[in-house]
Amino acid sequence: MDIGNLYAEGYRQGAPPPGFIDAAAIDGSICSESKCDNCGHQGMDYKPFLRDNPHSYRAFAVCPECGEGFEF
After folding, report:
1. What is the pLDDT of residues 10-45, one digit of tens each?
2. pTM listed for this prediction
3. Domain ranges in the chain?
4. Distances (CA, A) of 53 to 12, 29, 50
């Protein structure tokens, strides 16, 4: 996964703060239960990114085996 473009767009690695719903906990759980479409590895890593202005949150699942990643 190439994160260089995310940094260029003003994103930094980090999860949103817990609020009414805990997006980081939910998204992390989804990743840990997901299977890589590329190599079949069970259990993806949760990679969250935030941008402050304008506010934006992007979540990625990244395979620890092959490095394949996708935004969800």
Report:
1. 999 999 887 778 899 999 999 999 999 999 999 999
2. 0.86
3. 4-71
4. 12, 27, 10
